[in-house]
């Protein structure tokens, strides 16, 4: 008994019409190629399935913040009572990034919750559910574990799941929810939630910044300072920026610029007292200058190109 290839050649030899013989050969080659491709598909599917998509393994004591989100009004500096419901609203961002949002506006409490959820999901493939006790989440956020805090956490989780973000920059566009979905077991109070695997691109090496979590928690209740904290942390050496620009990017609801400037000075002092920056001043052109000093991370230090300004000049200009 011959091989399948030999049997086919014997069959072809019995066909005397050259044109018909070549047509049948061509058909046979197509069938053989299709069969080989079908056999290869399960192996290719298995290879793709084996690729695990997950967040980077963030170190303990640190939390990740997406640079595009920190440099925009997506997570504003407003208090909970000042939230607005919006639909496909264009938010203030830095050049090169566009963010549209539909839902109840996020604030800094929501940003802290998102950073904590991402941190707790670092060991899980994206798309799989993460299971966490509610009290663990609350303690990590610096909140109490009473019934009121549990109820507030449920509202905050609902807001994150419901809000729709359209974020576009030079590399990609993401349209979806920051938390894909979530559920809570009422008896145990355990939360389960998952992230869309497509969200992973926001945590590529050049797309996020690590912040000191304990230091961040020291700013609780200081909404503008917390927004500035993340905005400044994403810059190795913050460039001078107009007060009006920070007014817009922070999503502030303060009606008058002069009042926002007052609040900005207080927030910058809060950051200096907290060790997040070393010095700051606002010059005669209404440009805000910030010197981060020792707060700069080792990974950011290599991007520094300019010598630091005279400390005496900054102190004099602030007065």
Share of residues in helices: 40-55%
Strand order across the largest sheet:
3-4-7-8
Structural class by sheet pairing and helices: alpha+beta
Give the beta-strand count. Answer: 14
Characterise this structure:
There is one protein chain. By secondary structure, this protein is an alpha+beta fold. The chain has 2 domains: 4-50, no CATH class; 62-318, no CATH class. 42% of the residues lie in helices and 19% in strands. Strands 3-4-7-8 form a 4-stranded antiparallel sheet. A 3-stranded antiparallel sheet has the order 6-10-9. The longest helix is centred in the first third of the chain and has 33 residues, at 18-50. The protein is globular. The chain starts with a helix and ends with a helix. The relative contact order is 0.11. The model is unreliable at 44-49 and 299-313 (pLDDT under 50).
Produce a short descriptive summary.
The chain is α+β, with helices and mostly antiparallel strands and 319 residues long. The protein folds into two domains: 4-50, no CATH class; 62-318, no CATH class. Helix content is 42%, strand content 19%.
Secondary structure layout plus pairing:
Elements: H1 4-13, H2 18-50, E1 62-66, H3 67-70, E2 75-76, E3 85-91, E4 98-104, E5 106-107, H4 108-120, E6 130-133, H5 134-140, H6 147-162, E7 164-168, E8 173-176, E9 181-184, E10 190-194, E11 208-212, H7 213-217, H8 223-233, E12 241-242, H9 243-249, H10 257-273, E13 279-282, E14 287-291, H11 298-301, H12 311-318
Parallel strand pairs: 2-5
Antiparallel strand pairs: 1-11, 3-4, 4-7, 6-10, 7-8, 9-10, 12-14, 13-14
Helix pairs in contact: 4-6, 8-10
């Amino acid at each position: 008994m011959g091989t399948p290839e030999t049997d086919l050649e014997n069959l072809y030899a019995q066909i005397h019409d050259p044109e018909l013989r070549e047509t049948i050969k061509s058909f046979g080659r197509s069938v053989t190629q299709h069969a080989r491709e079908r056999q290869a598909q399960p192996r290719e599917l298995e290879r793709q399935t084996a690729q695990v998509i997950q967040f980077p393994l963030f170190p303990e004591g640190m939390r990740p913040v997406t640079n595009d989100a920190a440099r925009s009004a997506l997570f504003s500096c407003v208090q909970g009572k000042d939230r607005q419901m919006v639909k496909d609203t264009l938010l203030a961002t830095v050049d090169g990034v566009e963010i549209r949002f539909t839902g109840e506006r996020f604030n800094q409490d929501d940003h802290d919750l998102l950073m904590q959820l991402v941190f707790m999901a670092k060991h899980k493939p994206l798309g799989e559910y993460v299971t966490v006790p509610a009290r663990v989440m609350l303690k990590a956020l610096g909140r109490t574990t009473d019934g009121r805090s549990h109820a507030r956490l449920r509202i905050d989780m609902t807001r994150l799941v419901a809000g729709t973000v359209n974020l576009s920059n030079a590399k990609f566009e993401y349209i979806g929810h920051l938390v894909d979905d979530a559920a809570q077991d009422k008896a145990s109070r355990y939360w389960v939630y998952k992230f869309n695997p497509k969200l992973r691109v926001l945590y590529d090496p050049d797309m996020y910044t690590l912040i000191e979590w304990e230091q961040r928690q020291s700013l609780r209740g200081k909404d503008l300072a917390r927004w500035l904290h993340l905005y400044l942390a994403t810059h190795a050496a913050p460039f001078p920026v107009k007060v009006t620009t920070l007014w817009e990017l922070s999503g502030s609801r303060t009606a008058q610029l002069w009042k926002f400037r007052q609040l900005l000075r207080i927030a910058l002092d809060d950051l200096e007292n907290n060790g997040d920056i070393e010095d700051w001043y606002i010059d005669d052109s209404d440009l805000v200058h910030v010197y981060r000093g020792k707060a700069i991370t080792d990974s950011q230090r290599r991007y520094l190109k300019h010598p630091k300004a005279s400390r005496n000049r900054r102190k004099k200009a602030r007065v």
